[in-house]
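wait is this the right file?? whatever heres the structure
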């Protein structure tokens, strides 16, 4: 078990924590958007995460290279890469929450699972990687699961293309943006720590969404909605931190497989947590099988080893 501590129980706990937090996130966002618009909600997500992470970066000090974050960003190439990655992440957040506004938490969470699948396929297209038969089986299981889950909504998504269908397309667009961001992030991690990149992305997102935010509705927020806004800000930091720490204790493939359970957390929570105004997907045998296939396909693709070149 090279590269990991071997504390698999702790790693499992951290990965499950991330899955639960990310599974609850769209439900919290839906509740906040009963009052705030998607853009203002996303502004608060970025701003709170930036405010909370910045002191850590300042206290942590210099990079092992001896150069500060700001000095390394003075070079044109890494600065441009950071700006492109931050822009892609901001678009990802914007498309996701705009899609979430038009659809349900469960549907959005299932569609956004396309992001790691697209990243996997990008390795085939960009880096000449080869998927094994089990990985292709998992991929087709994932696609079949999506088809089963959205079969009752086929007319809404593909024919009428109403608000629900537009929402699904926006979330899929968010998955595409995340794939581009993840590729850029992989390049940036050669020069910056993950915390350094994220603090830059949070402030870039804050600045990007600030001009389009409307704070006139803040006085109408309930105490519960204020708590949910804070939860959404903390969710990104704690969820991401747990994810990064889990990678230090168990293999990345196992972490990814556990995170594939996130949509099931969302489906269960949406039906068990009674939040005002929360619309849920009707659960049938067909849609439930679809959700399980999406999760199973994701896990199979992640845990299977790629073919050697």
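ok assuming it is, sequence goes like this
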């Amino acid at each position: 078990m090279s590269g990991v501590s071997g504390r698999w129980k702790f790693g499992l706990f951290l990965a499950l924590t991330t899955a639960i937090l990310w599974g609850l996130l769209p439900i919290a966002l839906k509740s906040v958007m009963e009052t705030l618009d998607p853009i203002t909600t996303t502004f608060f997500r970025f701003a709170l995460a930036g405010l909370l992470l910045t002191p850590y970066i300042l206290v942590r000090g210099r990079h092992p290279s001896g150069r500060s974050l700001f000095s390394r960003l003075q070079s044109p190439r890494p600065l441009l890469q950071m700006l492109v990655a931050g822009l892609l992440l901001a678009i990802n957040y914007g498309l996701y929450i705009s899609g979430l506004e038009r659809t349900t938490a469960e549907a959005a969470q299932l569609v956004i699972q396309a992001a790691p699948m697209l990243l996997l396929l990008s390795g085939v297209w960009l880096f000449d990687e080869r998927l094994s038969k089990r990985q292709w089986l998992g991929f087709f299981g994932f696609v079949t699961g999506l088809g089963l889950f959205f079969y009752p909504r086929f007319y809404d998504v593909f024919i009428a293309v109403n608000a629900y269908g537009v929402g699904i397309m926006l979330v899929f667009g968010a998955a595409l943006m995340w794939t581009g961001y993840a590729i850029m992030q992989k390049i940036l991690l050669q020069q910056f720590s993950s915390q350094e990149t994220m603090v830059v992305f949070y402030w870039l997102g804050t600045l990007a969404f600030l001009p389009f935010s409307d704070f006139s509705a803040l006085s109408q927020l309930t105490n519960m909605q204020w708590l949910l806004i804070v939860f959404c800000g903390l969710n990104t930091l704690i969820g991401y931190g747990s994810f990064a720490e889990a990678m230090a204790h168990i293999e990345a493939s196992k972490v990814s497989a556990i995170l594939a359970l996130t949509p099931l957390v969302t489906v269960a929570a949406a039906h068990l947590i009674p939040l005002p105004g929360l619309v849920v997907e009707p659960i049938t045998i067909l849609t439930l099988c679809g959700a399980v296939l999406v999760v199973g396909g994701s896990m199979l693709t992640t845990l299977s080893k790629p073919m050697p070149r």
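Residues 120 and 131 are 9 Å apart (CA to CA). so i think its the right one actually
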